[in-house]
Write a structure and sequence with these properties.
With 146 residues, this protein is mostly beta strands. The chain has a single domain, classed as Nucleic acid-binding proteins (OB fold (Dihydrolipoamide Acetyltransferase, E2P), Beta Barrel), CATH 2.40.50. The chain has one helix and seven strands; from the N terminus they run ββββαβββ. It has a five-stranded mixed barrel with strand order 1-3-4-6-5. A hairpin with a 5-residue loop joins β5 and β6. The longest helix is centred in the middle third of the chain and has 10 residues. The radius of gyration is 17 Å and the shape is globular.
């Protein structure tokens, strides 16, 4: 049987991106995304719950995200789940499941972004939509996730 690991999310950043560089110089940014779900409870009253998700973005895409997104920015993420393990300072083994972004789409361009979005020639084919969106694609896997 084939396996599938695909995640699609739309939400807002809960804080500014955190750009870092690996010892090899590869850019990586962590995004904290709030995804809201509205539903009716048993008494037919509307309720809302929020899921907070960590999204990891690599390479040139990480630098672009850091440059143009900020706390509150609406964003669409396409990616996959990725698990990671490490040992903390007290020797405890820790595990986390994060979303590794393959594509990031900026939503609501021009609504107070850190800077104006880059020219379209850097972002691929021009959009025919009436609202501006910007797609960034993960070009290749450069990091050994070992």
């Amino acid at each position: 049987m084939a396996n599938l690991n695909k995640v699609l999310l739309i939400g807002n950043l809960t804080k500014d991106p955190e750009l870092r560089y690996t010892p090899q110089g590869t850019p990586v940014v962590n995004l904290r995304l709030a995804v809201n779900r509205r539903y009716k409870d048993k008494s037919q009253e509307f309720k809302e719950e929020v899921c907070f998700i960590t999204v990891v973005v690599w390479d040139k895409q990480a630098e672009t995200v850091n440059q143009y997104l900020h706390k509150g920015s609406p964003v669409f993420i396409e990616g996959r789940l990725q698990s990671r393990s490490w040992e903390d300072n007290s020797g405890q083994k820790r595990n986390v499941i994060e979303v590794r972004a393959e594509r990031v789409q900026f939503l609501g361009a021009g609504q107070g972004n850190k800077q104006a979005l880059p020219p379209e020639e850097h972002l691929g084919e021009p959009s025919t939509e009436t609202t501006e969106t910007t797609w960034l694609d993960e070009s290749e896997e450069k990091i050994n996730e070992g």
